[in-house]
Write a structure and sequence with these properties.
Largest sheet: 10 strands, mixed
Protein name: Carboxypeptidase
Strand order of the largest sheet: 2-3-7-4-8-9-10-13-12-11
Shape: globular
Oligomer: single chain
Keywords: Carboxypeptidase, Glycoprotein, Hydrolase, Protease, Secreted, Signal
GO biological process, one term: proteolysis
Number of strands: 13
Number of domains: 2
CATH architecture of the largest domain: 3-Layer(aba) Sandwich
Helix content: 25-40%
CATH class of the largest domain: Alpha Beta
CATH topology of the largest domain: Rossmann fold
Strand content: 15-25%
GO molecular function: serine-type carboxypeptidase activity
Number of helices: 16
Bound molecules: 2-acetamido-2-deoxy-beta-D-glucopyranose
EC number: 3.4.16.-
């Protein structure tokens, strides 16, 4: 999630009814009544590993992680890809990704009883074929520890140095992690973090002995904010041609967008961020939607469930989280520290990554914040020799088990996916499509495979 809309989302009132015993259905788990001896997690829902990765041993600042090993790996574990997930915000916890989106167990209401929270297995989990690591990034987010507010990153370079420290210490936890291909993934404001750490790894690797390098294999960004100056200028046309605002409102919104663009060009970073927030508030006000994250929703995403779940001391204990931390979905301290970073572009980092690695940009179709048009507009402006061929590449109809799932456009190392039936939180809305997408992209199967003769002949037929 991006942080600034939290105040727009009316909090769901969650009432807990604690049950003293676990329910009978084996896959559903009730929260225990208190800090009694019962565990909130049965063994099968526990992460393979979790705890803290130091980013600065002298101050004690550390990144909290949960790691889930692949459930059905198709190669030996030492060759099985590792996915790393980073949440957006700035300052929102990756535990939302873990327990509400793509992790193997998601928090939900217990359907049969009134409304205690339960963990339910997610058949669309991203750790079916791959290892999956969630990092609470930057420090100060979720269960991560910032020893002082001054140590919280204020720019993407510092974010990347902290992530690099955490990732390398994670790899050292197990000798079999050393050579596994690593894919950095994330959503929303991670459209900044993912390129930042990917770029940092590639630059750093150039100075390291092969045995010291991080084995980066690709980066994937869902509904990302990456090149804000281009993206902020797309809301008005997108909403207008979607029939959500009229022509007069379009003009008003465009005026607000130009202000954000102008302030960004003059590097007035703080005011530029405020101006972007104004654009989004204006769009929210004009449309009266439940959430800009998905214009089809009647109510906002109820990711608050994760907060209620993770504030339980028993849950913190089994996850190895510091029990004195009161879990928040998004940290204001981190949001404030990165306020001046919001409108700064990392497009040049994606241009570097697409030349040296592979890049996936995917968007849920219903998102009005960082959606399809917003992404395609900045991609067209990339300084990359392949961009012309990418723009001309066919947009293929993507089906899963004969049902329409979305569209895929790929050329060379760049892939773009439109996920139908999804808003900003793609894995929450379309878990099986999101799983098929990430698996096929990593393994270069299906529409993510290499160009086949079939493609050439169908282009040729089109020309005839
Ligand atoms: C930033 O923009 C605001 C609003 O337009 C203006 O008042 C302020 O002087 C600008 N600051 C700088 C450093 O240019
Ligand atoms: C939009 O803003 C106006 C003026 O502040 C307010 O009266 C109106 O209720 C708002 N509409 C919505 C849908 O939030
Ligand atoms: C937990 O966090 C608190 C406050 O940040 C800190 O003082 C304490 O040392 C931490 N405890 C452990 C076990 O790390
Ligand atoms: C673009 O595609 C054409 C046709 O496949 C190819 O000849 C050309 O080398 C490509 N351009 C770049 C910059 O890769």
């Amino acid at each position: 999630m991006e942080q600034s809309t939290r105040s727009n989302s009316p909090n769901l009132v969650v009432v807990f009814f604690f049950f003293l015993s676990f329910c009978n259905i084996p896959t559903l788990l009730s929260l225990p009544s208190s800090s009694s001896s019962t565990s909130a997690f049965p063994n099968e829902a526990l992460p393979t590993k979790s705890g803290y990765l130091p980013v600065n041993p002298t101050t004690g600042s550390a990144i909290f992680y949960t790691f889930y090993e692949a459930q059905e790996p198709i190669s030996t574990l030492s060759q099985t890809p590792l996915l790393i997930w980073l949440q957006g915000g700035p300052g929102c916890s990756s535990m939302t990704g873990n327990f509400f989106e793509l992790g193997p167990w998601r928090v939900n209401f217990h359907k049969a009883k009134s409304d205690p929270l339960v963990l339910e297995p997610n058949s669309g989990s991203w750790n079916r074929l791959f290892g999956l690591l969630f990092l609470d990034n930057p420090i100060g987010t979720g269960f991560s520890i910032a020893s002082t507010p001054q140590e919280i990153p204020r720019d993407q370079y510092t974010v990347a140095t902290h992530l690099f420290a955490a990732i390398t210490s994670f790899i050292e936890l197990d000798p079999s992690f050393k050579f596994r291909p690593i894919y950095i993934t994330g959503e929303s404001y991670a459209g900044k973090y993912v390129p930042a750490i990917g770029y940092y790894i590639l630059k750093k690797n150039a100075d390291l002995a092969v045995s010291e390098q991080v084995n980066l294999a690709g980066v994937a960004i869902g509904n990302g904010l990456t090149d804000p100056i281009t993206q902020v200028a797309t809301h008005a046309v997108n909403a207008y041609f979607s029939g959500l605002i009229n022509e007069r409102q379009k003009s008003e919104l465009e005026k607000a967008q130009w202000e954000a663009v102008g302030l960004t060009k003059s590097k007035n970073w703080s005011e530029a961020t405020n101006a972007r927030n104004k654009v989004l508030h204006l769009l929210q006000n004009m449309t009266g939607l439940a959430t800009l994250y998905d214009f089809t929703r009647k109510v906002p995403y109820n990711s608050d469930l994760v907060t209620d779940f993770l504030q339980n001391n028993e849950v913190k204990k089994v996850l190895g989280a510091n029990e004195s931390i009161v879990f928040e979905e998004c940290s204001d301290a981190v949001g404030d520290a990165l306020h001046d970073d919001v409108m700064k572009s990392v497009k040049y980092m994606v241009e570097f990554l697409v030349k040296k690695s592979k890049v996936l940009l995917y968007q849920g179709h219903f998102d009005l914040r960082d959606g399809v048009v917003s992404t395609e507009t900045w991609v067209k402006t990339m300084d990359w020799e392949g961009v012309g061929n990418f723009s001309m590449a066919g947009r293929k109809v993507w089906k899963i088990n004969k049902a329409l799932a979305g569209f895929v456009q790929k050329w060379g190392s760049l892939s773009q996916v439109v996920v139908l039936g999804a808003g900003h939180l793609v894995p929450t809305d379309q878990s099986l499509s999101s799983q098929a997408m990430i698996e096929d992209w990593v393994l270069e199967r299906g529409l993510f495979g290499h160009p086949q003769e079939e493609d050439l002949s169908s282009n040729f037929q089109g020309a005839l």
